[in-house]
Each structure stands twice: as C-alpha cells, then as structure tokens.
Amino acid sequence: MQTFLTKVSQKKIKMIHLLLETDRWCSIEELQNELKVSSKSILNYLTDLEELFQQYPDKVILKNENNRRFSMEKQENFPIYTIYLHFYRKLYNYHLIEFMYQHPEKNLEDYADAQYTSVSTVFRYAKLLVKYFERYRITFHPFKLELEAKEQYIRSFYYYFYWHSTRTGGWPFKFSKEKIENYLLKFERIYHIQLDPLQKRVFSYWLAVILERSSFASIIVDKTDQQVIKKDPFFLLIGQWLEAIEIPLSEDEQYFLYQVIYSFGVIDGNPTYENSYAKSHEISDSLCYRTLVALENAVKKEFDFRLDTDDQELVFNFVAFHERSRFFFGNTDLFFNRSYAKEIKAENPRIYKRIKQLQKTVRKYAEKEVLQVIDNWEQLFLNYYYILDYYDLLLSAMDPIKILIQDDLHHTHRLWLMNKIHRLFGHSYLLAFYDYQTAITEVDLVISNYYLDTQDIPLLLMKNLPTERNWRQLEELLYRIAQEK
Fold first, then answer.
1. Which residues contact 368 (CB under 8 A, 6 or more apart)?
2. What is the rounded distance in angstroms from the CA atom of residue 456 to the CA atom of residue 445?
3. 139-141 and 146-148: which strand pairing?
4. What is the dihedral of CA 194, 200, 203, 206, to 10 degrees?
5. N or C, which end of the chain is more exposed by having fewer CB within 10 Å?
6. Helices 81-89 & 7-21 angle (0-180, nearest 10)
7. What is the pLDDT of residues 335-357, one digit of tens each?
C-alpha cells in the first residue's frame, strides 16, 4: 500500500483486511508474524479498532477470545472503505492537502500555525508527499505548498481526492451546494435531459473544482482538442448555459468543461449528444479516436474480432474513457492505490497475460502521440478488461472446464441441463460438455443424479429438477476448479 499513511495506520488496515479475509479465528501469534510487531502492539491496535467500530454499531464486529484469538465479521453491504478512511482523515497530510486546496495562497508556515505546531514538524510529514505526488506526474513543493503540473492533472487530483474521501456524504467545497444544484437544474433545462443522482454528484464536484480554481489558476486546452470540440454543434449549449447561470468562464475553461461533461459520464444515456461527440472525434481523427483505431486493430490481431466502430454509441464510450485518462496520470484510487491489474494477475494470470499482450499489440499499432495515451496503463487496464470480457474474448485465454453429465434419464434432460448450466454460468466460465462416451478421468467435473465412483474427479449429485442448493454447489465447484486449472 504505497500511500502517505503512517506505518502504524498501515498495519491496522492490514490487520482488518487479514481478519476479514480469514474465515476462522486468528491467533495473536499469527497476527504478530504477519504484521511484524509485538503482542502488546497487536492488543493496542485491537483496542483502537474496537473504539472505532463503536461508531458503526453492528456493522463491523470484532471478536476477542481472552486476548489470544481474534476474528472479525462485517455486515455484507457495509463498505469497509468507510473504516479505512478514518485513518487518512486523522493524518497531517490529509489535512495538509485540504489546506492546500482551500487556501492556495498560503504556505507551510501558515499551515503550521493552523495546526498549532512547528514548521519542522509539519515539514517532516510534508516531505512524504513528494514521492506520493510523483507517481501522478505532479511536482510538490513542500515549503510553498504548491503543486506543479498541467492544471488538468491538478484539478483531477482534487476531484478524486474529494470524491473518494466523501463517499459517505458531506459537501467538502466552499462554493455553495445550493447554487450548484440550481446551476444543474438550468443545465437540464437547456440540454433537455434529466441527470440521475450519480451524474449530479459527479457534475457537482467537478463544477465546484472548476469554479473555485478558475479564479486563480488558468487552464490551457490544446488547440487540436479545441478544433475537435468546435466540430460538435452542441458545444454552443455550454455558452448558453453559462450565460443563463451568469458565470463568465474563459474560452479554454468552456472547452475543458465540455470535456468533463462528456468524458466523466454526465451526458451518458443521451444518444443525440453522445453521437455528436463521437462524430466530431471521428471526422477530426482526434488523438483519442486514433487510440481507439489502434485498439481496434490490436483486438482484430489478437482475437480475430472486430469492434463495431460504426456504432457511434460505442465510439462515444471508447473515446470518452481514453479522454478521461488524459486528465490524470496513474491510479485514481488516491488513498489505497488499489491496482486492478495486480488483482487480476493474482486471480487469473492467463487473463492478465492476454490483456498485457493486447497492450503490447496496441503499442505496435500506435503512433508517438497515441503511445502517450497508452502509457497511462493503470487507468486503461480496467477499461480494456471490461471490453474483452463484455465480448467474451477473455474466455479463449482459459482452458474449458470439462463437465460430464451422466444420469439415468433421457437425452432430452441432459440437453436441457447443459443449456441451463451454460445460461447460468457460461458468461463467467468457458464450459465444455461431454457424454457417456468420455472417460471420467478426462473431465474436471461429473454431474449425476445417482452416486458413482469418480476417483479423484469431483462429483456433484444433482436432483432431476435441480434445487437452489444444487446450483450453489455447482457455482462453488466451478469457482474452485477454475482457480485450480
């Protein structure tokens, strides 16, 4: 976890994760070995956690057996992220970043005064942020409390910072939330659309960041990007809306606002605007469209599958996520730096290799400018995974799970059962079905309505009309077999 958390906070979070992921009691010795701390430290951590969990009655339960064994349970729908964020909000550097955003004109001495502490103490913590910001290609000047980078990167950083840190509610900005809500109502009237709650929240946060920073930090939108935007006739609506809400923004700010609205999903679900956006990128042969073409060629090469780039809605979605990745380099999970690439590599190395191979092939088809977009792999990985998985292209990276259906009913029942299993689980697993002519030793799973000796091959006894329990058993077996293959 490469973040600016203190070592103690990191160990507490690691302990929570360990206890939640372990479906059994953990001894104090196990926790000591995992965290590399003394038993006294373990007990101190647990005491702190018990106090924290009291803020969320019945959401997270810590069980303690005489200070020797421990286990933890969480309410299924309760986001553990909420607990983890407590450790960040207590830190100097969390408050330092907030201070930087809220008071851009002030420096480290001002922050030390606000914290009632010495400059040297604050500077010791602030230095930790230098490497933290480096991974986002942002230079941090500790004494000035200044971020140096493209303004798009800086605004995106603050957007993600507040987006993730206020998941449970609250309004973190100085700008009036009520005014923002009124602006959004006029936006809906001018665009003749209705935003859903998520779109409203995304747009509200972005609008607050833009309005608060545009007064002192200028943004520059590339001339080629401006030409793309000008080709969309609906760009004029931005000016009409800003005039209606009496907010004067520079031309560059209007271009940037347009990019945010389209690439962050504010306009999603409205084909008129989506298609116009896609068309403007296509006829301009924009950087993001050229990146899509490189991806299209790579998918054809690697999977012998053609992405339907004649579908304007598809083009809109593909161009939008590439454009979004240009606003910010690196992992947008600012607090926990969760890497989906690493998770998939651990869960299914073959699928990870297929996606990495796709990346290499995209790079072969990419020109120099497109390579700069592709380099933001931490963001693009998950989008590419979704594309390949949506079209079932990743299944070819796996060996099929071979299932022998052997029962004493008629052939129609076996055909029905094969089709039923495929409809329920075929989207998640590559399945191959076999009949009596196949030896049991050649398959991964036998399904039957009567007992037979299958040696080391798993046997699932299934009723003629399968029960819910039968389907759960099958799901568990398929998952286990897939992990072992």
1. none
2. 10
3. antiparallel
4. 170
5. N
6. 170
7. 888 888 998 888 778 889 899 99
Closest to 319 in 3D by CA, of 288, 362, 275: 288
445 bridge partner residues: 403
Question: What is the rounded CA–CA span in Å between residue 142 and residue 111?
Answer: 11
Residue 213 in tokens: 């920073």
Residue 399: pLDDT above 80?
no
Q: Are strands 69-74 and 26-27 parallel, antiparallel or unpaired?
A: antiparallel
Is 387 in contact with 354 (CB distance < 8 Å)? no
Task: Give which of 38, 228, 59, 152 is closest to 46, Cα–Cα.
Answer: 38
In the structure encoding, which two tokens stand for residue 147, read together? 């971020």
Give, in degrees to the nearest 5, the angle at Cα 162 between 161 and 166. Answer: 125
**Helices (DSSP H) in 285-348: which residue ranges?**
287-303, 312-325, 340-347
Give the model's pLDDT for residue 187.
98
Quick check: helix, strand or coil at residue 221?
coil
Binned at pLDDT 50, 70 and 90, residue 396 comes out as low
* Per-residue pLDDT tens digits for 2-11: 556 788 888 9
Q: pLDDT value at position 1?
A: 42
- What is the three-state SS of 48-83? HHHHHHCCCCCCEEEEEECCCEEEEEECCCCCCHHH
Is pLDDT above 70 for 93?
A: yes
Band of the pLDDT at 308, cuts 50, 70, 90? very high
Query: Can you give the pTM of this predicted structure?
Result: 0.82
- Asked whether 455 and 440 are in contact (CB, 8 A), the reply is yes
For residue 148, give the 3-state DSSP assignment: strand
